[in-house]
Amino acid sequence: MLHYRLYGLLLLGAVASMGCKESSSANDGGGSTGGMAGGSSVEEVRKGERGSSCDSTNDCQEGLSCIVTGGCPAGVACANKSCQPSNFDILGTGKQCHLTECTTKADCCGDLPEELPAKCADRDVKCSQPTVPGCLVTTCLDDSYCNGGTCGGTCSRDGATCLTSDDCEQDSCDLDTGTCRFGLNSCNSDDECQLVNTCSTPYCNCTNPAYDPTDAICSDPDCQGVCGWTCAGERCVVDTSCKADTDCAYPTPHCGDDGTCVECLTSDDCEDAECVGGRCGPECEHDTQCGVFEACQEEKCVFVGCRTDRECVLGAGTGLFDPAQDPRLAVCSIEQGVGTCVYPCEIDAQCSPTEVCLDGRCEYIGCETDAECKTIAGLHNHPLPTRDRPWTTSAVCREEATTP
Fold first, then answer.
1. Cα(133)–Cα(261) distance, rounded to whole angstroms?
2. Cα–Cα separations (whole angstroms), residue 302 to 93, 244, 283
3. Which among 184, 205, 226 is the end of a domain?
4. pTM exceeds 0.70
5. In a domain, 15, yes or no
6. Which residues contact 347 (CB under 8 A, 6 or more apart)?
7. Is 295 found in the same domain as 362?
8. Smallest Cα–Cα separation from 270: which of 259, 255, 257, 254?
């Protein structure tokens, strides 16, 4: 009997325990249900701050984009990405820094004389040119082949100058001495003198006959210290203008009316070609005779820029321009007939560090003040002006010139 009573107590305890667990589970379930009704237990995804590593822009906070911030070898996908600002509070100005040094030739010359006295006009020819400028020692048929030099060969017997053997005097009998002129054998008539006098192959003689470095004009102080600079495009550059043909050299041996050395003045200066604008023949006949991004229009090479997107991609690969981004992103934008390779964009972060996204393309931010140009152009620690270099280089911020 005692055995059965003990078994009954154990069974009752087990049932009571199960009831507590079910109640607890029910209470927990009720708590969970109440919690779901009151709010979500799912944690919000935390977006990356500026500088945080990322795989895509979706990993970054609003206003930030996931961009490459570390260099990668060509052809390798870059994992060095971080969250950076999508746009910046910088607007393009449409202005550029322009270097300026002068407005007239006098700004480049300072105290140096701009002109030489008339007596010094041919000084360089006498003092500095042992050979004729533009003349090349080569075979020729006449003087026109020698660009100012003289064409000639040498007669084999007497050393006389000649172009052909017909110019050489032939052997003859000197009746006073009874000997041949070249052979020195006895003779009574020219028929007995048979040595042939022939002309060697003519070559250009490029010796300058006026060259005389001992002439007094070569040491005349009035002819020294003249300014060799001129003002072009607001920059002081070496003066290459001319006043006479002697100031010019091959392949532009003639001084034109505008003071520049040209290939020809008239068609007589050309071989089988017409003199057009100081050139023998047209500047071009086909596009292949012009430079990169130029086309032959009305016999002149004219810059037209790119024509297709592929030109921008392939041009960067051959070093035609320095791409700020992957050149495969570049497109050719043609405005007023001139094409420019640009990079399309939606946000500033897609452009190079000195550009912003303007109207869907990366544009240089430009300058706002002249003071900024000192830094942009690197005008620091320049030497003071001297007598030989009397100008000062400065930079100004100007509107970019429009393409005509």
1. 13
2. 29, 30, 10
3. 205
4. no
5. no
6. 65, 86, 87, 357
7. yes
8. 254
Q: Which amino acid is at 36?
A: M
DSSP H/E element including 236: strand 235-238
**CB 256, CB 265: distance < 8 Å:** yes
Give the torsion sign (CA, 61, 64, 69, 73): positive
Domain that holds residue 59: 48-86
Q: What is the pLDDT along the chain (404 residues), one digit of tens a residue?
A: 434 443 444 444 444 444 444 444 444 444 444 444 444 455 567 787 887 888 888 888 888 888 776 555 555 556 678 888 888 888 888 899 999 999 999 999 999 998 888 888 888 889 988 998 878 899 999 998 898 899 999 999 999 999 999 999 999 999 999 999 988 889 999 999 988 999 999 999 999 999 999 999 999 998 888 899 999 999 999 998 988 887 887 788 899 999 999 999 999 888 888 898 899 988 898 999 998 889 999 888 999 999 999 988 887 766 666 666 778 888 899 988 899 888 888 888 888 888 898 888 888 899 999 999 998 888 988 889 999 999 999 999 998 765 44
In a domain, 377, yes or no: no
Let me know how long the chain is.
404
Question: Which residue in 153, 160, 135 sits closest to 145, CA to CA?
Answer: 135
3-class DSSP state of 179: strand
Of 171, 205, 239, which residue sits at a domain end? Answer: 205
Burial 165-194 (b: 16+ CB within 10 A, else e): eeebebbebeeeeebbbbeeeebeeeeebe
Q: Within a domain: residue 108? A: no
6, containing H or E segment: helix 2-38
Give phi and psi for 403, each to the nearest 5: -75, 125
What is the number of structural domains in the chain? 3
What is the DSSP-derived secondary structure letter of residue 175? T
109 vs 228: CA distance, rounded Å: 8
Is residue 91 a part of any domain in this protein?
no
Describe the chain by its helix, strand, coil percentages, rounded to 5: 25, 25, 55
Alpha carbons 178 and 188: distance in angstroms, whole number: 6
For residue 60, what are the β-bridge partners? 48
